[in-house]
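Notes continue from the previous slide.

Worked example: a multi-chain complex. Inputs as given:
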Amino acid sequence: MACLYIPVQNSEEEVRVALDQLPRDAADILDILKAEQAPLDLWLIIAREYFKQGKVEQFRQILEEGSGPEIDEYYSDVRYERIAILNALGAYYSYLGKIETKQREKEEHFILATQYYNKASRIDMHEPSTWVGKGQLLLAKGDVEQASAAFKIVLDGDRDNVPALLGQACVEFNRGRYSESLELYKRALQVHPDCPAAVRLGIGLCRYKLGQFDKARQAFERVLQLDPENVEALVALAIMDLHTNEAAGIRKGMQKMQRAFEIYPYFAMALNYLANHFFFTGQHFLVEQLTETALAVTNHGPTKSHSYYNLARSYHSKGDYEKAGLYYMASAKEINSPYEFIFPYYGLGQVQLKFRDFKSAQSNFEKVLEVYPDNCETLKALGHIYVQLGQTEKGQEFMRKATKIDPRDSQAFLELGELLISSDSGAALDAFKTARGLLKKGGQEVPIELLNNIGVLHFERGEFEFAEQTFKEGLGDGIWLAFIEGRENFQEIAASESILQYKDVQFFQQLQDSGRQVKLPWNKVTTLFNLARLQEQLHNPETASILYRLILFKYPDYVDAYLRLAAIAKARNNVQLSIELVHDALKVNDKCPNALSMLGELELKNDDWVKAKETFRAASDATDGKDSYATLSLGNWNYFAAIRNEKRNPKLEATHLEKAKELYTRVLLQHPANLYAANGAGVVLAEKGHFDVSKDIFAQVQEAASGNIFVQMPDVWINLAHVYFAQGNFALAVKMYQNCLRKFYYNTDSQILLYLARTHYEAEQWQDCKKTLLRAIHLAPSNYTLRFDAGVTMQKFSASTLQKEKKTADEVRSTIAELENAVRLFSHLSAASNLHFHGFDEKKIDTHVEYCKNVLDAAKPHLEAAMREEQQIRQRQEVARQVALAEEARRKAEEQRKFQLERRKQEDELKRVRLQEEHFQRIKEQWKSSTPASKRRERSEIDDEEGGNGEKRRRKGGKRRKKDKSSKSRYETEEVEAEMMDDQEDPEDEDANLNYRDLASQNDQDDAEENAHDPLAAAGLEDSDAEDEAVPSTNTGRRKQAWSESDDDEPLERQPFSRENSPELQESDEEVREDGHKPNGNAAAEDED
Amino acid sequence: MKLAGLKSVENAHDESVWAATWVPATDTRGALLLTGSLDETVKLWRSDELVPERTNTGHCLGVASVAAHPSGLIAASASLDSFVRVFDVDTNATIATLEAPPSEVWQLRFNPQGSTLAVAGGGSASIKLWDTATWDLVATLPIPRPEGPKPSDKSGSKKFVLSVAWSPDGKRLACGSMDGTISIFDVARGKFLHHLEGHFMPVRSLVYSPIEPRLLFSASDDTRVHMYDAEGKSLVGVMSGHASWVLSVDVSPDGAAIATGSSDTTVRLWDLSMRAAVQTMSNHTDLVWGVAFRPPGASGVRAGRLASVSDDKSISLYDYS
């Protein structure tokens, strides 16, 4: 047992103090020491013993007593021991300061330590141990440079001073100069081979930092041999084990880590690593506890940074982005430069991305990129951010770089593809295909989202077969195959129920009841929806309908499926069912703007003008006016309203037009590339007479609309044609109408045929006009206005033929036939109008019949005249021939003899013929002028009409043109709305009316002039016109109907194509993108170590 | 089951060809193809070379429909001016000119027994039946108007009758209208039986199966062909695939297939056992207004023939086997 002997003053005796039995009260010992004036080294030994035993108070008491002023005085010549005591105190306070976490106390400790060291220096400023102590103190304070200076002073005096060597080594280590540090440690070890384990720990750390892992491991193991409880060595070894990245290694590492934790539960690095481990095992509670402890026990920046990072990550993965962001920020704050520890920046970037704070995210990711310029994840994240910031080009650049750096990163290609979707679908498709190829090559399952996107791109490009293949590949095996391939038998149903067929999901219930499994995994819904959409495009609406219903059977909240079913029903003209389906959709989400818009269109179709407007408003409100479709619909509504009030109230018209223009413009401001808004604006301009401007607009829209199967804009073609027509360029207008008919309507649209006919009419191509109208009638047999127009055309044709100076009997005959046809048509109409409601009144028809009959009467003399003339000509020819024959005979007889004479005779003959001709001419003239009075009047009227026609036309030109315009614009609007729609069947009606009105009014005017003496007829005509415009009670119904029909179609159609499609596509994109995010997030999280 | 193109005649008419039917063979000659056109003529063609036999004139405003008497001796043609001309096939002598104003005339069909000519009456919302012996109007079968509050405007024009078809036994008559409804009549009692619902767009062509007397096929602008059990009022099948209106439908004499003509310019052959299109002919360049299977010939001509006519002014003949 170690004992200490305190010599008794002035005696040879000694007091024996057993070191393991030091009194609890240090004062006892102090009394002895003081009393006996024991040498100071004994004081020191006893103090140290107390310290070793953990009795810090006693330790401090003795040392403080031993450094008091009395001692200084009494032992003034004992310098070394006094210094040693002071240094011990200094070291003690340095240590206290080092481990203290509270800043104030920490500083107080350091100040005390500094004071003690300074006191020691005052005793002997060359004492190396004081310098070493100071150096340690400075190190503890983090003042590396001054610490180095202190150590250097010592080492200059004694280059083998072990504590100074160790201190310097520590300095070098902190400076990151590991090989120098290693040298110093080695020297210390050489000088003092038995030095504590910590030296070897230093060597191990240097080696570790230098990448000499095996040697580092040896060093750490050696430390543990010397000191089995050395936590640092344990942790270091554990970290090395963990970094092997092998299951066994990690297990061993964790065991070591745990042991370290058991030995000393406040070792921050161990805590961080444990937290890290538990993060990956998902025990977030442990992560938080550990990191919080770690944060409490350390002040070391990088370690704290790690702790914060761990905490942030934990919250991040739990989805608490706000906290995660705060901790990431705290973590980033703890480090001096991103080069030390980049992960928190990455995490921060991700969180900011999540909060759509793109600018900040961008700067953080850029920091990451600075450190790791080739990090694909970062490149991808940045690419994404740039796209979000609208810098698509730059975004693509980053994404492309990512794919270039790792051409096997299917994820990168996937994201690149997504970026390209909006700008370059071809390149996007290539990128997606590459991604698919990579995944397949890697033996991985190709995610359905990717296949879906590929399919959609093929779809958009019109490559339907590829699209179908891809969708099917994505869907794999399932109940849907039976429907797609038509294996599932069509269920026979009562015809009366077939009306509601599209709502029926019983069918699937039956299938299920009969033991078939009806399954539809949620992740396949989008693809199935797209496949159904494709089936629609491929003209298999039945298949599409069954697929949509399958979706609804499993996911009754899938609004888009309801809307598509409604669109199919609407395409079939089953308005009632369509409305029901839309209402089903609204039951799911009564604010769904798409459903509301569609409902609005359907209400228009059902004549519910006011309701439709409200619905459009609701749709617009539901999206804060951001839904272009709703706004466009309102614009169209206003446009129609303007047209509707044309004659009734010019002010209202102007207001509505302005309103329409404003709405179109608003959409254009939000989406400068919105074709429909542009078209609408063009229409309003045309309405105002700015044909050149509107023509430019239409031409641009037309160009932009070509090349995408989802953008079908026949309206713009029609509008262009209208403009050509209004500008008198009939040939171009005809061509444009015909192209439009062929391109968009399979030549089945009678409305466009009507436009075409009208163009022919204006161009006075009567036969073309008639043929066109007949075609239209054949296509739309129940549209009686077409017949009326045909009648008018024939009447016009006849009148103009009769007007001609020269006409053959055949011409006159065919004219008469036409007139008879016209009369027949008109009288049919007249009879039919008793039964039906066609939109024109009997009186007007009667007037036309009367007129035709009159012309017919007038034509008969023409015919007779023509026939007589022909006969006479024939006779004359006969005479001439006989004369010629006689002459010939005579000539033969008198050939030689009377050559001269004969010639004269011949001349005489000719003269006679001429005279004869003149005579006939006169007779003809007589005929003309000698027709009976009534007929004459008729004729002169005709003349008037004919002559005045041009003039009148010109005169009326403005007016008529205006009408044209309006009708045109009407079409246009319809078209506008029709934007995407295919069947413009309804617009026909409306336009028919308009057109008809144009034609009719023109006619009326003609008639009115001709029959001015017939006030009744005139009145009747006027009436009808007035009715047209002014009497809402009778006519509005009709007109409304017409409009509403036309309107409906367009929007509806539009709905299906533009609106609905885009949501669905977008949706799929979004899905994919979301998927992309998740991996990203995980990757980021994983990245961290 | 397939079609093989045999012969096409470009510019068979000066204008769109709107109607086609086969005149059955008689003792003295084989079956003839009868076509009607917007050019106001009716033409007769000898198969298989489609040699023009004769051109009949006399119509105004375009020939919208043609029909042949089962005897093959007489035929009828109707034009947009609402006249029906009945003529002797071999001599072109006019037998009768029929009109029933204000009713216009759309599709025409002789009954299989040859005693009656049914005429779709358009806006009169009725079918007119003419006795083929006396050429008197013997009956008008009106479609009952749905009891609605406003029978005047919309519904009126929508019951516009476009197409007619006789059941093989001649006891039933089906007619299709603009609004898509199909009406079934009991001819003997002159009584309306019921509607067949399912279409909501014009039904331009109807035909009964020659094999299963209850089976009725309808072609509609909604791009579909429906298969109804006309007695049981049930929808038996739906065939979709045309991209635009289905303008015409006809059943093959063996009852195993139907052919359709559409405004998407194609002619399709549908296998009824599969209820799917087995072939699509795209030789026409414009609306295909008519398709017609040749009735089995009396004079030992067994080969199946299908003719199609189109707005592109051409007529085509196919071998059906």
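Summary box: DSSP finds 50 helices and three strands in chain A. The two ends of chain A are 51 Å apart (CA to CA).
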